[in-house]
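Why do we care about 3D structure at all? Because function follows from shape, and shape follows, mostly, from sequence. That is the central idea of this module. The next example makes it concrete: a single protein chain, its amino acid sequence, and then its structure expressed as tokens.
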Amino acid sequence: MQCEVLSERLGYCFRNLGLLSRALRHRSMGKISNERLEFLGDAVLNFIIAAELFYRYPEMKEGELSRLRANLVNGEVLADLASELYIGDHLQFGSGELRSGGPKRKSILADAMEAIIGAMYLDGGFIVTQRHVLNWFAKRLDDIAGVVQKDPKTSLQELLQMRKSPLPTYVVTNTSGAAHSQIFTVECRVAGLCEASVGVGSNKRVAERDAAEKMLAKIEQEQK
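And the structure:
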């Protein structure tokens, strides 16, 4: 009954409810869990979003497309999507994980969302899964469009705000050269990343933009 309720909420009627049931089984339940479906769903989701971005933005370069995809396909976004669909209400846990707050953990919600996508792919095929994923991500796809086309500092700030992370910090670490031709070195730091990015420029603003652009590249690389 629980699976039928969730199936209706997802907007997709599973022919094999056993697949959906398995997608909801956390590894704390034993040998039969959603880990393999999560692996499959991650690949399917990344392809669907990558293909959609590829066709939506024919002028964008590979790095820009990768950055957009990383903004869309990450644990924070997937956990939010799972919460919107009340996935946590249907997850199955072992007693220990249940007591430790498993249903509310963002990483678990994100994994379950990927597992559901994997289950849908096996049950209904790629076209059906693509249609539902794009429907779930429709607003996010529209909202993300302008991020990489803006000033790097603005793009970085908006990306972190979307992830509900603290804003970046910029610190001038060095100034060299004659007064009329100074070179500024700036470090940009982001919560959750141990390594700062270093930007260099003819003034503080240019150096900060360079550091922000390099930080965006670091975040993109971490998502791969």
